[in-house]
Amino acid sequence: MSHFTTARPRPFLDPAYCKACLRCVEACAKHCITPGSTLNTITGVAPVELHLEHCTGCALCVQACPEPFGLRLDEGMSHLEGEFRLEDPTKLFGKKRVDVVDAPIEPDEQIPLPGCAPLVLKGAYASAIGAVLAGCRHVFGYPITPSTEGAELMAKLMPELGGTFVQAVSEVAAVNMMYGAGGAGVPAMTFTSSPGFSLMLEGISYMIGAEVPGVFVNFMRGGPGLGNIAPEQSDIKLACRGLGHGNTHALVLAPSTPQEMLDLTLAAFALSFRYRNPVIMLGDGFLGQMTGVVRLPPTLSRPGRPAWAVWGDRSHRHNLISSIHLAETDLEAHNEHLNRKYAAIAKRETRAELFRCDDAEVLVVACNTPARMAKGAVEVARARGLAAGLFRPITLWPFPIDALLPLLPRTRQIIVVEASPGQLEDELRLALSHADRVPPPITHVRRGGGVLPQQTEILAQIAATQEAFA
Amino acid sequence: MNSPVFYDHFERHAHGAGLKGHSTHYCPGCGHGIVHRDLADAIGELGLQDRTVLISPVGCAVFAHYYFDVGNSQAAHGRAPAVALGHKLANPDAIVISYQGDGDLASIGLAETISTAQLGLPITVIFINNAIYGMTGGQCAPTSLIGQKTTTSPAGRDRAMGSPLRVAELIAQLDGPIYVERVALFDPKQRVKARRAIQKALRLQAEGRGYAFIEVLAECPTHLKLTPELAEAWVRDQMVPVFPLGVKKDLTVEPWFHCGPPSYDVEKFLALVGAEPLEPDTEPPVPATSAIGDLSLKFAGAGGDGAQTAALLLTRAAIDAGFDATHIPSYGPESRGGTSYADVHIAAGEVLNPAAPEPDILVAFNAPSLAKFAPMVAPEGTILYDGGVITQLPALPAGCRVIAVPFTEIARGLGRPVAKNMVAIGALQGATGLLPPDRFTITLRHLLKDKPSLLPLNEAAFEAGRRAVCPPSVPT
User: Rounded to 10 degrees, what is the CA torsion of A354, A360, A364, A367?
Assistant: First the structure.
């Protein structure tokens, strides 16, 4: 090699990694590289040939090569040419410095709160404060009635708490900011309402696929289309059965008081991180606006850093947030993993409130604000000697069927009360069907368009049912 | 040696089997590979490998995470800048790179592209413009040239399909970005410029200075149906006249971006949400009476009558007194003028139904409200209305207790007509004995603790309302 004019490293090529694009050929001013004439038996293309007698080591050929393992500068490795084994790259390149240490999981910390006088809060504010208590310092959203109070309070609180509120260009952008922040392992959330939730579904599907946590608070309003801004429950189908494309599910929580807006938002973050999956809070328009008594929990959370986070430091460097699995068997395996997770959620996380159900013959099934009207109706019915009870699912997906089944032997009639054309009833019927149970007769009180079922009409239905028994 | 920023073995590329363990998925001669190398070198040379988060798009670069040994996130089509923003805000120390093609960045993700650029947070956007859709198989891109034949412009792109979008110029005219350059790869000189531009863009982010955007005119030999050499010539001769190369914007900006660190300070949190710690042994208040099973009230008036404030004061006073209470306003456009009404429930136990379709008590501030809601009042309920404003009574349900108090007149007498809602609350207390009077004044003082100057007027209005239905000679 004594004829080389300088000591600069020369290009080196492993022929198996040349795709013969020839970009290097015209990059070389000294015409050192020529198109190959011999087919490589592994790749089936003819790799370029290097004739380095006139090479100046300018490296322009290397800069022209699109392949990371294509043309490289030979820093003492030319002796390996021709001896390279595909199976053993470490033999060729040496064992690379291993930067990846076991990623430490910084655990969440619970910081005690003193006992406080109860707060008097709107549901939307209670939810925002629940998120702050959960350690959420990243809120992304787009204004939409009737959810804006949540975003407005967060716009005020976040800067004070070293957090961020971003009013995104759209719900589409907002959900993808959640994908980014959630992928970095920090608790992130949004407040939205039905049309905005529709726009977020693409991102929710990606979050579920990539196992990114995040909390969506959807104050459901009247639809379809622009509908109106009055309360409805017509996103139950969307949240339970239609979270974007593919095999998607997420815990769906249905609060019915301002206190539950706080408690369930707080719980939603923990569940979201426990299962690395989004959690959907379905409120109705009424609930966001309703003011009531709200008591603070005993602790405030300082979230840790999960091992899987794509954080941007050495210990998390090997992590990947992605929902793409190109090989069919890989994607099938991924979906089986998701299915096991859904099954674990269904087994462990269902919640329901049973109000006067013990000896109930007429079971009213309702959630959100209509459940409160139903509760009032049950109370009045009991005062009149009618054996009514309220079964209130708090998780809509998974439906708390295990809490319902023991009540069925005594139940002579189920009345589903909802501000939607049967979406809750569909969930109930599907859950009964999966449980292989033939239910008692099911009737319903359904209102829509922003009209909520009223206590009087629920009561009338209970009374009519009882008369029919007699 | 290849860049240490590339993995030694492309484990994620078909599990690293065979050739795929060391070859990219890109076609021969593709510009992506060159930009990958430039980017990897820049990350390595600036010492950023342990801080970098690379966002891969949907498009041919969807598998960038096969190659780059950095933190990786793969975004939905067009949303990479939003994902990048989420990462940057979660960890401002991270070096976040959004790597996107022309369909991703300039078509489906245009809203995210523009809004993120205008926001100007320090992230780096690498835009590969090869004037065609690669991954989906050669369709028309927003940057395809007029006359360019693609599978979705088989006769050549014409005016009716829109002209090619010059994104670098679009981004440069926004206020957010500090550095915008368009570079190319078609000859060694251009490739050197491209390397420098990419490195500079990253350095500006590492220094916290701002948003940088590098548009790279790249070759797609496969879908241009040209050899790599001819594809280079095509970029040079056909693309460059439409997409002029060069620096479009280069501002000198001092580092400005700060966010966090997140605070979990208990006292700060309590102050922000208005929570007041109790003395350790404080017993929760107990309702003075259990006679209130579940009382429902409706406050109704015109926007500006203060019906909501009155309803909220009552709700708070009841909760402070140990009751459960709820308030639901009418809301939406209605709350911005027109009628405004509020439902309140008070219960010694739990408020079951928070709506008040058949209120026990109606407080009406104007005639339309009285006409609308009086027929709904529960049998033997109470109707309290502004007797100065409502002179023509509608038909009222039999059996109701009906009380007229001139809320507005009394408030005007105190010099502030807007205090009429406090007069109404006073009258409500006087007429029904609902909560002891001092419960209202305690709550009022609490609510106005930051605005003590408003307290005397409100207290006076409350007292005047009470006296109007409950003369001082009669014990309360």
Answer: 0
